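Friendly challenge for the regulars: who can give me the structure tokens for this chain first? No prize, just bragging rights.
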Amino acid sequence: MTQIDVRPLVRAEIETERLIARPVLATDVTALAAILRQPSVACWWFDYDAERARESFVGSESDYPFTVEYRGETVGLIRYTETTDADYRCAKLDIFLGVQAQGKGFGAEVLQGMLGYLFEEIGHHRVTIAPRLDNERAIAAYKRAGFRTVGVMGQFERSPDGNWHDGLLMEMLSDDFIAA
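First reply, four minutes later:
Bragging rights claimed.
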């Protein structure tokens, strides 16, 4: 199995028309934790306080979290994890945006910027994202960004109340991104 070392390729910033995504810093944790406590975010991202945000987003060696900024203000986070085996070159995305950034097209915009980075600079073949099946706002944003539905994943995620929820596997291939 051939592994590809991409860590040195991580760019300092990904710029879109209105947004900047940059690697998370320790100084971002308070703002990110506050966003994660907003009801419209907390219903999908459970039980994040500042300590869990720090553990999840600062200095991770298994994923690449980026703070999303609009006009210098932290409005969310986008991160990717990846498979570096040359025969399975792919990444998985997660994203959240605060209430102040919802409904403005920021989700699709930052996803497009990250997809360009992952396909054109890092060299991934496929990128997936897997929202809960009942997260209609996220699914609509992912479709606007060009993702297509692959299928439903039964009992994909457990919520804090112990109930399991289905997920929707969505993907974009590098050929589809380039053609878009």
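Strands lie at 14-15, 19-23, 64-70, 73-83, 90-97, 126-129, 148-158, 164-173. The CA atoms of residues 17 and 124 lie 23 Å apart. Your move, everyone else.
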